[in-house]
């Protein structure tokens, strides 16, 4: 069969980047997989994403090269996958890569598969010519294809062992009823303390990642030491170059331990949780640094990351004009051209432009390096605005403009949370527009879709999509209660249980019960760059169960926690999302229901503020069709009911009764 490159009709910007390659790229679909089986040809699977620097490097070196493409086309069925649209495939083959190589994975992920999808060799980036101790890619392809032709029995035996090993990563059903206790909470904090960098904040050395789920766990703990670790880390991040001091928003990680030089790509999934964390950090510390960073990050999202129809875009590339970071860094000449002498002197002192170049020995990247004097804030803001305007005239990094349900949910929750803390109606409206987009575009006949671009929504959603969106709805109900949002939350929760729950063992599979059959079906409780779908699903279901008095939701959350309980007891590091479930299973959240005239409710919600372990629902008079647990009687003044678990206090009309 004569093949051609079939990526031109895809929605993923990453796949479209490769649509003109001489490689006969195929999408991951039944046609491609059937062809591999019919022709008994191995598969070369390449997984990446549009903002990935080394994905671009490998594409330019090998996938755009006619000679390399000829080898690939002759020997393999070549399949290209966007890890953001197909996180199921990425999870499976990253795990397989680690098991085969005993090395951490990453992107681009390059895996060689038997026609049935079983991997038998893999790596990440490979150069076109031999270097970095790696073979040249065309030569590697020939050797790997020869291995499949000559050692099929060995490869088949290895595939059986690999699948068995992957099944061992799925926790077994509990044999006895779990008895939960708080010991894993303290153990997890102690583990983070051992890895904590007391000088620069963060955990471990370079490269250094934000770990927002761990920071959220520490910040919401009633522990001065944990709170101090979280605030120290966030403060150093906000002062460092991982935060865009000129335009707002956080990069994916820092290449050094000081948070100074980032890998410049900006991902939506980092910035949503970090926006919420900065708001929490300000609420706890009143440090104006956190308020400024929250303000600038939200402004960046509204300016650059929200589509006209309401959805949030996925990412900004690290590269522009073929160079990583070129859009963000400065020369002395560029600074002098954009600023007055007075502004330039202040900017140099504040952002470290007066020292040696800190990016590739020839450019400067801004980070907070000096203190501001009295009355210098307005002059610095003038300089920032001028540098932002000058930067926007440059060739911009590419924007991955697809809308992902899970990542949008993370940004919606972060935006709403920050809006509640800072009282920002514009941020709340932004999040509501994104939520409305997901409901109208991604929710169809009781099923959620994963991705949308230019009016085309497709791919069945994954556990993370459902779980993160349910959690975002619970945050939104506290900011602006709408019956349709509550109804949507119930629909979403019911669909999540029907499509993902393991009713026998407990917990939730990453893919739905009717998803295509792959070589493995993950069920992980571990947090990664994004929170654990199992952790967030259990947390949101547990909260919704308490809110509505719905035992089905509470039981599903308890079974998920019980499934992972042995992991939490033995080694709780990396399970921060599930630890939040444990925390609220031991002490149920406080639920405050306010009922009364709409004009009087804001005084109460402002006085109550935003606290971990508390949900506040403000229900104005006139709402009809409320569930029994929320259908409190109306009156001509605000009454408050405080509930915890199955116990509710008598109503009170005095704010101080709750605050005390």
Short description:
By secondary structure, the protein is α+β, with helices and mostly antiparallel strands. It has 24 helices and 19 strands.
Layout of helices and strands:
Blueprint: H1 13-17, H2 30-39, E1 43-48, H3 53-63, H4 66-75, E2 77-82, H5 87-101, E3 109-113, E4 119-123, H6 137-150, H7 152-167, H8 183-195, H9 212-219, H10 224-239, E5 253-254, E6 262-263, E7 266-267, H11 268-285, H12 288-305, E8 315-316, E9 319-320, E10 323-324, H13 332-338, H14 341-351, H15 377-391, E11 399-400, E12 403-404, H16 405-422, H17 425-442, E13 443-444, E14 447-453, E15 456-460, H18 463-479, H19 483-500, H20 533-548, H21 551-570, H22 576-586, E16 590-596, H23 601-608, E17 614-620, E18 639-644, E19 647-648, H24 655-659
Parallel strand pairs: 1-2, 16-17
Antiparallel strand pairs: 1-3, 3-4, 5-6, 7-8, 8-11, 9-10, 12-14, 13-14, 14-15, 16-18, 18-19
Helix pairs in contact: 4-6, 9-10, 9-11, 9-22, 11-12, 11-16, 14-15, 16-17, 16-18, 18-19, 18-20, 20-21, 20-22, 21-22
